[in-house]
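Researcher: I'd like a candidate sequence for this fold, 362 residues long. If you have to choose between options at a position, lean toward the conservative one.
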């Protein structure tokens, strides 16, 4: 699928194109609005947001109908959380690190450089105190966050030129968000964040020299291969990215307990469903990128990996020493949980993967 056909099918509308009607409430039925940061019908993420909405609607037998607005249909994509905070939507679907200007602690709930894999992140949030500190952060804004999607370990990004070392990063204009973006800044890049639908044009115009978004499944649809051919794997700054569902907390708590449970449980189910979607479709999309579009798959040089690790340690230590009590608490909770969950990953999962790669082929 090329970029033009994808966006034609997506049918993106400009901001404000959708009606701003208030939520419908009749005979106990309600309609809530979900704004997203994703293009309409966007593989994995946009489709996951729509499926989440449809499952809530179906599971509630229409008592709570979720109407989805793609990026730009109701509000600009990177104003989705603000729409919930301000009351113009009841839900948003995006990534917590997009809102690090509100609290640096939010970045821990999306992806941390050299941090948790997606399974490790889930363990922290569900069983090791992560949800509780996340709730404390979002309580300041009157919202509630839930994990809602999992892309797994992401691709490292698209680059016009091959990277041979840290010197090639100096002054590189690079789209990459969150704490990972701060790592690349320490390595010398000029970092910016922008929504998915804006990246291609910025690459095409030369505003960007490089960009990372998610991985092959999304990147094929976005058409980055038309501009850059050097595709780096894996990302060392986004080892297990999670998306989030955010809801207006007061309205959520006003719902009957069964509807609250439906929202919570569907979000959890969708976290796993999105993970399976990416696991199935990333490899096939990468094959298309390589075989049909001449993309060169590369690994980051050790010099960049080592410098990136040193930068990540500095940034995380800054957060552990933060003057902001909630940011410090979040960073400490993350660090404590990582010390636990990495044991199984490194002592059991990783050796098995190495053995399978070496000895077993079908």
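Model: Candidate sequence:
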């Amino acid at each position: 699928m090329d970029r033009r056909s994808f966006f034609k099918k997506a049918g993106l509308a400009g901001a404000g194109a959708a009606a701003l009607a208030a939520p419908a409430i009749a005979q106990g039925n309600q309609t809530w609005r979900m704004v997203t940061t994703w293009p309409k019908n966007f593989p994995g993420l946009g489709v996951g947001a729509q499926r989440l909405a449809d499952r809530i609607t179906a599971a509630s037998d229409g008592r709570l109908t979720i109407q989805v607005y793609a990026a730009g249909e109701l509000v600009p994509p990177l104003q989705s959380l603000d729409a919930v905070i301000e009351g113009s939507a009841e839900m948003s679907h995006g990534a917590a690190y997009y809102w690090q200007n509100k609290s640096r602690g939010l970045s821990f709930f999306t992806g941390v450089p050299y941090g948790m894999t997606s399974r490790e992140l889930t363990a922290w949030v569900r069983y090791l105190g992560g949800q509780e500190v996340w709730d404390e952060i979002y309580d300041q804004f009157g919202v509630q966050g839930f994990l809602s999607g999992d892309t797994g370990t992401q691709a490292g990004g698209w680059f016009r030129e091959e990277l041979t070392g840290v010197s090639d990063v100096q002054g590189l204009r690079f789209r990459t968000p969150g704490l990972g973006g701060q790592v690349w800044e320490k390595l010398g890049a000029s970092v910016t964040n922008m929504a998915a639908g804006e990246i291609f044009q910025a690459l095409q115009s030369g505003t960007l020299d490089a960009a990372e978004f998610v991985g092959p499944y999304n990147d094929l649809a976005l058409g980055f291969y038309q501009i850059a051919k050097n595709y780096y794997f894996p990302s060392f700054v986004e080892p297990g990215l999670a998306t989030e569902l955010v809801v207006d907390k007061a309205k959520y708590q006003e719902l009957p307990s069964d509807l609250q449970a439906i929202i919570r449980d569907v979000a959890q189910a969708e976290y796993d469903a999105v993970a399976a979607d990416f696991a199935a479709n990333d490899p096939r999309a990468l094959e298309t990128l390589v075989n049909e579009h001449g993309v060169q798959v590369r690994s980051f040089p050790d010099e960049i990996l080592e410098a990136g690790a040193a930068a990540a340690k500095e940034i995380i230590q800054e957060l552990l020493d933060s003057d902001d009590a909630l940011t410090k608490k979040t960073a400490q909770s993350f660090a404590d949980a990582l010390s636990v969950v990495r044991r199984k990953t490194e002592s059991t999962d990783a050796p098995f993967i190495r053995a399978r790669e070496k000895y077993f082929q079908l």
